[in-house]
Fold these 2 entries.
Entry 1:
Amino acid sequence: MKSFLDSWGLSLATFVPLIGVAIMLVIPKAEEQLHKVVALVTTLVTAAIGVLLLVNFDYSHAGEFQFVVDKPWIEFINSRYHMGLDGISLPLLALTLLVVPLCIIYSWNHFPEPRNPKAFLVLILILETGMIGSFLAEDLILFFVFFEIVLLPMYFLIGVWGGEQRQYASIKFFLYTLFGSALMIVSFLALYFLTDKVLVDGVAMHTFDMQQLPLAAKGLSSMAAVLIFGGMFMGFGIKVPIFPFHTWLPDAHTQAPTVGSVILAAVLLKLGTYGFIRIAIPILPGAAQSWAPWIGLLAVIGIVYGALCCLAQTDMKRLIAFSSVAHMGYVMLAISSLTAIGMNAAIFGMVAHGLITGMLFFVAGSVKERYHTLEIKRLGGMLVSMPHLGWILGITTMASLGLPGLAGFWGEFPAILSAWDTQFGHVGLFRGYMVVAAIGTVLAAGYLL
Amino acid sequence: MLTHVWVIPGLMTVSFLLILFFGKRFTERVTSGIGIFFIAVCFVLSCVTVANWVQRINHPIADISADVALVTQPGGGPAPIAGQSDREAIVGARRGPLEGSIDQLVKAGETTTPASAEAATTEAATTEPAATEPAATEPAATEAAASAEHEAKASPIVARWTWFEWGSLKFEFGFIADGLSILMLFTVTAISLLVHIYSKEYLHGDVRFTHYYAFLSLFSAAMLFYVTSSNTIQMLTGWELVGVCSFALIGHWWEDKKNSDAALKAFLTNRVGDVGLIIGVVITFYAAGATSFNVLHINQYALSPGANQTLLLVGGLCLFGGVTSKSGQFPLHTWLPDAMAGPTPVSALIHAATMVVAGVYLIARLYSVFYEGLNIGANFVNYIAVIGGITIVAGALLAFVQTDIKKVLAYSTISQLGYMVMALGVGAWTGAIFHLFTHAFFKACLFLGAGSVSHAAHHTFDMRKMGGLRKFMPATFATFIIGTIALMGLFPFAGFWSKDEVLAGSLNGQQHPYVLMLVLGVIGAAMTCLYMSRLIYLTFFGEYRGHGTPHESPKVMTIPLWILAIGAIVLGFLNLPNFFKVGSFDYTTRFEHFVEPTFAFPEINHAEFNVGLAVGTTVVAGIAIFVAYQYFWRRKSVFLGLRDKVRAFAWGYKVLENKFYLDHLYTDVVVGGVKGPVARASYWFNNQVIDTVVNSAGRGAVASGRALYTQVDQKVIDGLVLSTGTGADESGEALRHMQTGRVQQYAALLFAGVAFLAIILVIFV
């Protein structure tokens, strides 16, 4: 079992959804029930593989990559099919594997107009492949491919099944991210060409390998490193989204169908922060230190600004979207502290935000289903008319505002904790950020209640 | 039991879950029965814990069972609890290398994380979960001779487990059992039990009876969890959880907009204070070497000679921010009177006896931090004491102008909390905690009494619609009077002893007397007598002004009242001053003996009973009561009609009626500002500035694309193509002439063409 997982586990987890897609493509469109079953079974099988991986994961060596697959892929440029699972990817993988089946179950009887379950579910499965692959890829090109695979299905989900302004929202989403991606790929290429060569089978070649790049990038001039980091910053930062590149998010969230919002909030935003933790910072730690004060600044602006914008909202989904901006601000603040606590806080914050915000969007979707409005003012008395949903909303809200003991707190508090003691100077600056971030928690209480 | 205090909050959690998930299927009787049963068991367990603790102090045991991890002294260093004589040396040394360990820690951190962990372990005082006894501490100056042995043995018992680790950072999960936490366990379970019983009748027939009992249980669980937490993170959790329960219970009748607004206000005001608390927790954590959130560890650090006093000061003030909101200190007290919108038993339990003292408990628990940070030992004025003093007077002043009986009591609570905080500020630790303890009983008695009154008088709390109730409800009247006397601090009721200890502590001070605090305290005492007399007069004397006929409340409600009233009478004797000691039997200062920590605790100066002060305050109280008697009962007083005669008085009255305009400041200016203009401006910025940039970038791209298409693509390129097309036609014509059908000619042309391409390739590539 273990050896099978070692060689096939990650590939299966990534590509089983595509097998499901292949099956669904040959089933005629009218067989809706069959489509649903196939899609659900596919995601459940994927999740089962994921569970096996989680069970067999050696938690005492969480810092090392496990179940590694490393095969030549595009030999000409020394890009490899290199996948691995470690303590950073593991929680995000688990999150993805949890969220996608839930989305399919959620939409079981509630396909948004214009229905067409076949296309809808196929897109979700493709999305799953892209997300899982991104979290597992250990090669920049491979990562980039998965990263971009995510983009298209999401574009269609918003553009076809979205609300009234879906055209605008989907194009905005697409262009924003694509713009980031363009800068990101340029950065990847620059890394490839400017870093030292490594030996592959005795031949010196440039590399895209994430594990070899930190060493290879040692020789990079600091200017080049800072510029390359800047490119990646744009690519990942737009995805997070960091203030001021966040404006695609409220539109996308408001217009997307519920399931789209959930996946977007729960998993897609994490691709950005994951990119920082996995790629940008380990490969270019020096440049990260030059950038950190700015990232921290944008992060705390995001926290306060997101919260303030929330206060001005009347639409529930838009409110949750802006609260995402604020929460991802905490995650980015934790990352920008560049401390071990900060990284842990960020990962915890990512998972917590994924669960909480995903949940909130599910609730918002259900509310819309019943009330046909998301105007907050008209939603009073939920606890009476639908006690279960009301309770769930209440608890999720409490978690979202970082109530200790619930998930949100463990992302928020350590983030604040990490900002006290940065290890590369700027201590005073980050302590200022810390205070602002702490004040952000009050605003969070203000808009959520 | 001492190692298993976690059972107590655990049981209440079970109760909460039972009621929450199955409550709907039960009748009221069963629901309340579950709650009462569990809290009763908890109460019994608390009593067992108290007994165990008394046993432990009286008969120190040498060996501690192996599963108990005791916090040890800092590795190798001298015991941090120094005697009075060493104090000067510590203070002197502190001016020197005080930032050593922290600075080195920061520098060491520049390398790798494990290295910084190493540095932290070696540089800063750290705790090891070893089951060893702490080194014998030096004998305390003020304690009896036997206390050296007692100190070594009666250290707190901390049961703790590592919850999870992040690199060098260990998150612990632990429970502490010492005099303070056990006292709180006892107080909370006792009051909570009585409130659980009382509510059965009070909330009878309520729409959300289940919801109420579920939250009452959850609140008890959270509060008990809070007081037994061994580290600041857990305390933060408990702190917020009680806040949520308070929020839910204040808004219990949320159909009325006023109630849900009050709940929201309470929650938000507390969140403001929590900012301070969170930052304070972070600062104390890093100050104490960034290895542990354990309160004893932090206290030990604060007392160690190398402690960074600036950090302690900042950390202490930040923590005090949390205290300010939770314990209703000026100027964040505004939520507490509004919180009276909740059911009355809740007001008694949460907003008088237990939750609001969470802040006082926080200071008491981390007392070394405050003591060293604010330099309480060597001061004659400091921030905490001043805020406490202001709160005493401000609360008492506001209590005068209320017409709602519960609001008078709420402001009275604020004022009394001021006493506790002030006591901590002047170093009278035991006085503060003793007052907390007695206040919990007599104030709960008063609140439940007010509930009983309202139950009788058609659910109104407006004193203008009461009057003369003493005839209709003798039991409530009697207990209420007892509670009032205790609150006024008249001899020999509980309030007298605890309040006297606070005032004596202010007079005595540590190195200097805290004169200002003493004056504020005495003024507060006089005012307490005045406003309580007013309340008694309006409620129980005169003619009944409401409608219907009032009636005495049922036994379920009066029995808790009597129990609390008895507490209000006798509990003061628990800490009789040494002054009253006759013979060799140990019955004085028992409270101090059992409750005051001896481990990681600053060496504080205990005030002795001061006959002059006690007589003086009694006389002041007597005068105040006399004045009130003249004013209300006899209607013969120079103060009658003062509001019309003196303009300054009228103006003052208006300020009080508007609660110092603080609510206007918070609601209209701060909240209104942030929610209105600022939020809208941010959103405007979002939509108008950022999105305009984005959209115009998009539009620009589309426009330039279109331009490219119409101008370049259609005209230039297509023009070229088309012209090639026409060109082709024409050249076709021309070529036709060349198409002669002769193979050689074709070959020649082919060759020419290839040669031409070859030349181009050679030249350009």
Entry 2:
Amino acid sequence: MSDGKLILVVDDEEDVVSYLTSLLEDNGYETISALDGAEGFKLAREKKPALITLDITMPEESGVRMFRNLQQTEETSKIPVIIVTGVSSDFKQFIESRRQVHPPEAYFEKPIDKDEFLKKVKELVS
Amino acid sequence: MKSRVKIEDISKPSKKLTHLDIDDLMPLPPPYDKIEEQPGWKALSEDALENLETSLDDTIAIGIPKPKTQEEEKELVKKFLSGLEKLLTRENNWTFLQPLLLSLEHCAKCQTCTKACPIYEASGKQDIYRPTYRSEVWRRIVHKYLKPGGKFFGRLSHGDIDLNWTTVARLMELSYRCTLCRRCAQTCPIGIDNGLITHELRKVFSQEMGIAPKELHEKGSVLQLEVGSSTGMNAEVVKDNIEFIDEDMKDLTGIEVHTPWDKEGADVLLIHNAGEILAWPENPGAFAIVLEKAGISWTLSSDIAAYDGINYGLWYDDFQLGRVAIKHAEAAKKLGVNRIVVAECGHAHKALTVIADRVLTGDFNIPRVSAMTLLEDIVFSGKIKFDPSKNDFPVTLHDPCNMVRLMGIVEPQRRILRYLCPQFREMEPHGVDNYCCGGGSGFAIMSGHNFQDWRLAVSGRMKLKQVIEAFDDHPEPETKKYLCAPCSNCKGQLRDLFRYYGVQEKSGIIYGGLVELIVNAMVDIKQPFINFDEMQ
């Protein structure tokens, strides 16, 4: 179990991973990262991060699938998730209104507002 | 108070060519008639006023950066003129040259078309929104700058105009104050197509100058060709989302559906507007139920662009249109289906079945049909049992321009509604004479700066009036009413329009597609499929 500072960043774009991990590390968090949903889910189970930032459109396994898997697996079901995506804004309502999953703890469209993002991270990690 | 604007005024620099005042707009019926309760539109930001071309009216659709130097302005004007020249040559514009030339030469300037234009009428008859205004600017430029001796004779025979950066910048924006509904073309006594002229101008701006609204280009057709859908969903995401919908359908209706993907040899390749999956998931869900219950062999495709029927190139760029249409046909060819069925999306209908006829030849000429006719065949096939009393609430029909006026698909959806909806009533006018929702030609997805306010206050105004009047026998919000709009783009505009004016609260009207009404009337469905309290 992480000490409450470890954040898993999942995104298939290396530039985004680099941006988010730098941003988080500069603000005192530890990070790990994955480039698709399958790798991300595996890491989530192994490392049990305090928070996950999750992209949606990724190859191999999407963020939607990973989001479902996280919630259907006991050891990961309580980890808060921030969706960070470039998918159209209608996806927010779609995912928040699915009865099969509870809504993500936060939702940001790319490009993110970095101050709002950090504020939300702080709130969820504490 | 509006003042007259002459054609040649477009070239004269000023802060604004036209100012819109909410008091001048076409009145709305009660309870939407109080000007003070109408939202109006936000002022443009200081940043936009300083950095973007904003001198046409009170809004901006494209957001054209102001050129930094006079040389840059001259270069853009030069590109525009050479683009116009190409537009008038067969080798560069074989798709649309003939009707364009007819519209260049023969306008009688009778202004019959102005009364047919919902934007002109709803705006309180602003001169610059006349269908003929931008056409006449274009004509004068062609006659003066592109015809031999035009600088002298063109001015005398067709009226004068100065071609400068102000003219071009305003004309660009003005080409996005028309929804391409082509009601003007329908009413013209001699067949002039002002909608086509607007379309061709947009082509010059995109194809020759690289200028188009980002919602249509970068976030539209470019994203669709790169990722697979303008929603940003790749094939994995769309499959996972459809799985959610299949599960919901079972819970809601008790009918088990497993949407098939990439099924070779299926009869039907169904192509939805992918926005439907996210914004109105009950629509693709209802299609799955109806197709399964009717025993149709069908599939979706997970190939790039083939799970998203949109084709925004239809509105601004022939090259992008062709690229997307070919992707759609390639997917069908690869699967060996008998036909492509275009689901409830009007512009996708026209793009793939009519316009793409020029591109999809030989092996690519796969039969392409409307969901309206497939649904009609299913409803009257006897394979599904219906109880029309389940739809016993007032229903009216919005006719998507692309599907109805521009393709002539008028009756299939009406035969279904007359059969399944006891309180079906037409709005006036309807069928091929319908009014656009106000979100046509890409407007429904364009909301930058204050453009959304403009499209809801002005371009959607006539549709709102029609919808309210269609239900004037039951104005009270307690009576639940349904506006059937079998088009994703129109539904996007109606969603925004209803929120803007509070239509659900004030009038008890919800909107939705056609296939939802079909499922709602099925005997096998135990609980109502249409939920009047949960409209998104």
